[in-house]
Amino acid sequence: MLELAESLLALLVVCLSALVLLSAWSQMAQRRQLPPGPTPLPILGNLLDLKTHDMLTSFKKLRDQYGPVFTVHLGPRRVVVLYGYKAIKEALVDHAEEFSSRGYLATVDDFVQGFGIAFANGERWKQLRRFTLSTLRNFGMGKRSIEERIQEESQFLLEEFRKTDGSPFDPTFFLSRSVSNVICSIVFGRRFDYEDKDFLSLLAKINENFVLMSNTWGQLYEMFPWIMRFLPGPHKKIFRNLDDIYDFVAERAKVNEASLDPDNPRDFIDCFLIQMKKESKNPLSEFHLKTMIMTVLNLFIAGTETVSSTLRFGFLILMKYPEVQEKVIREIDDVIGRDRVPAVEKRAQMPYTDAVIHEIQRFSDVIPTNLPHALTRTLQLRGYTLPKGTDVIPLLTSVLKDPECFSDPENFNPSHFLDEEGRFKKNDAFMPFSTGKRICAGESLARMELFVFLTSILQHFTLKSPDQPEDIDLTAAANGFANIPPAYHLCTVPR
């Protein structure tokens, strides 16, 4: 009996050893088919190869070593990184369908659970995107009606600037209030007073989350969410902030539902509630309360922080390069004048201003890593096998600062978008809104906001820094998920 037990034990050991060896061999074979990359450590992955406070530099070094398509392990999670215009175009444009799924973003996935438009997949994403684009168009996105809302909000912003009497101030929440009110007018059907404490609190939470997701704590959470979610630290604030924003949107939805007139929708929430009623008997419908709240939350956050961050970077850049600011002001005076409210139709007559705005977007690079993608099916890319479901990070910063596409990528230079005769010149590598099937749904709105807000401000004010131009530092305060503009003060001096 003892001999039989020993034999069974020996057989079990042999079988387990064989399984371990087979698993190791299978993983090695699979890794040979994947893009190259540093060898991961158990559990830690490539933590020792990455600087959590400066992931973008770490990725650049890996590109230099392994090429424009490489594999990296964020903790135990395997991710393929795409670097440079050619690699990202090949993936997101030439293989748009295969790269159309949303990948895993640990700092928000546990919260959104795939319900909002930005993080949904499959049929849910298709239904939500189709509905969202149609509804935004109906509320004037890309049309004159939404431009009038932006123009109106720009006048409120100008009045706030006048109240500063040319004294130094931090522009952060001046800009986020104005930009946010544009998307608020669409999704909530109203703008908020600049002194509304609840509104200001929400804007502070959105801003804080972008900072937290981009610093070391946020990057560690991306690598080790299964540990970090149980550990104390600043990263916990991300989820408390998201809960508060969720509660605000949910409360707005209740208010709308109580006073809903199906024949006269007032905003995006009303339209979603109407669609929910239409599809209430459809078991395959993706239109329900949680999906609506998460989609509105996605639009609210994205429509607030990205444009306001770009403007904050832009103001700092224009103060560092006063000669650029002067040329923009001259063009505004020549084309628009001092008395008319700036309109997007004038942009075609203002090539230098258009080039400066594009260059601000390129240089500020506010979402450098892009949102992650995932493969909808197994794909061969540049001789490598990318299995279905593989998370992919198409680094937008590597396109916006690709030396093959921009002659002076590390420096601010409006001539990147001007030809030899001073006419505006398009560049296919201009991808601040990403590209392919997951391109930002609010691109046309953001482009309109940047033009109207910037030209309206420079039409009436000169931007001055308390510091000398040569002392202004354009380095981001944090870079990871987002490039966070450094804190600074400016003076808006009436012209």
From TrEMBL:
One of its GO terms (cellular component) is endoplasmic reticulum membrane. Heme binds at C440. It comes from the Eukaryota. Its cofactor is heme. Pfam families: p450. It is found in: Endoplasmic reticulum membrane; Microsome membrane. Keywords: Endoplasmic reticulum, Heme, Iron, Membrane, Metal-binding, Microsome, Monooxygenase, Oxidoreductase, Signal. One of its GO terms (biological process) is xenobiotic metabolic process. Residues 1-24 form the signal peptide. One of its GO terms (molecular function) is oxidoreductase activity, acting on paired donors, with incorporation or reduction of molecular oxygen, reduced flavin or flavoprotein as one donor, and incorporation of one atom of oxygen. Belongs to the cytochrome P450 family. PANTHER family: CYTOCHROME P450, CYTOCHROME P450 508A4-RELATED. This is Cytochrome P450 2G1-like. It comes from Podarcis lilfordi.
